[in-house]
Amino acid sequence: MEYLSRTPQTMSGLPDFRFHPMCKKLQLTHLIFVDDLMILCKGNVASVSILVEALAHFNVATGLEANLNKLSIFLAGVDEDTIRKILTRTGFSVGIFPIKNFLWGSSADNSKIALSPWEKIFQGGLNIKGSSYWNIASVGQLIWQIIENKESLWVQWVHGIYIKDDASIWTHKAPLYCMWYWKEINAFKVQMQGWYIQDKYKLTQSDIYFITKSYLAIIGHKLQIRNVGLIWPSLALPKHRFMVWLVVQGRLLTQERKLKLIIQVDNTDCCLCNEKAMETNVHLFHKCKWTSIVWKEMIQWTGTTLQNAGIIKSLDSIRRKHWKKAKKEIMEAIGGAILYHTWCARTWKKFKGKQIHTNEVVQLIKKEITERVNLLYSSKEHRIVGSLFNI
User: Fold this and answer.
1) Helix 325-352 and helix 358-376: axis angle, to 10°?
2) Whether residue 370 sits in one domain with residue 263
3) What distance in Å separates the CA atoms of residue 315 and residue 233, rounded to the nearest whole number?
């Protein structure tokens, strides 16, 4: 790879070779990424031909031959006739940069209702960052490198092509005709000026740029979902935790929510009880007789006095109790299991016409909780739990 990278540099001294317009000042002919080589030149037949000859020279000198199946050529701002001549001369295929668009809750062919709005994702204990904010914070590192005048090839290139005689990146204005990413960097820099005092990064004591620090500065102190720690107890099964998280936000597609989203609903009644009550988040997980029976059975099993006051109030009540940590974790896990199996029973009844009896659910929850305790708790913790519950 080292010998191959030197070959284009040597060939660039030939009179017919022309540098890529954005690489002329630095006389840049190639970039290496791990074991990949990117060779750069002006998009004309003469320059490309010289690079093809350089590859042929490398073949003769080393006995190694480039694999045409792995070679691609990327062309921009070149007329169709020249493109045809270049492809004929090289035998390369035209490359396409691997860029895809990912949209929250939809694709190119269809759309769907998102389970949770994106701004809630990085506020709700999932440890997922907002990609757009993280991207801005990452771009900030490039600005820091420019300010610090780090001796990297890219910083030298930026100073040679764009900044030139400007005293500072803050006073620099992006030229009308420049690379799109340079315009984006200059657009982002406005919200980053507050991170610097006399061109020194102030978010860390060392003046060294940290993307995480900048990210937190961008999002500020976002309001966290209440009782987020109780929503994600380690003892609970992952699917149960996720269900609690959705219920707390009111994001399940109940009949009430369907009406709010202007989705046609034939029958709004709760299908688990015969109360002729609308299926709402509050009814299904708090007031429904089916759910109340399951909750009562689980309370009797644990020997606690915790009442079903709705998931948010119940979590608050658990948090305020002067219980041992293990007891709180088990009650949180039981609450999540009840929500999950209530929703499953509702789905089976509504879409498959199968009635799930409360006894089945109670026995299943007891089995799940017992297995999780045996799996995750040490012998000492297990003894403590045994003294608290009949597990």
Assistant:
1) 140
2) yes
3) 11
